[in-house]
Amino acid sequence: MSKFVDVYLLPIKEENIPAYKQIATDASRIFIKHGALRYREYVAADLSVQDVLPFPAVITLEPGETIVYAAVEFESKSARDEAMEKIMKDPELAAGMEGGCPFDYKRMVYGGFKILVEA
User: What pairing do the DSSP bridges indicate for beta strands 65-74 and 4-13?
Assistant: First the structure.
């Protein structure tokens, strides 16, 4: 059985990073509670690469925005599906979003991946 990872890329205003970090920290506990094996979020630190396609060429950033990359690992795709059903119904998740979302969901990029190499 192959482990499965949900990957998210989201543009976010740099000024919203502290608020997002709190939401993501709370969400991490909820995801782990319902079966995620690992939950990590990263904020871009170097987007000025050359000779390859940089993230801002794929996700259009508005002035003052950066990119957050998130990866949530599960035992399998079926374990992810089962966990996500519980996560989306968890009242703690809804409570954490009462103040609104600090990024635009419609601009988020998402995909589910099987792990190819793990070292």
Answer: antiparallel
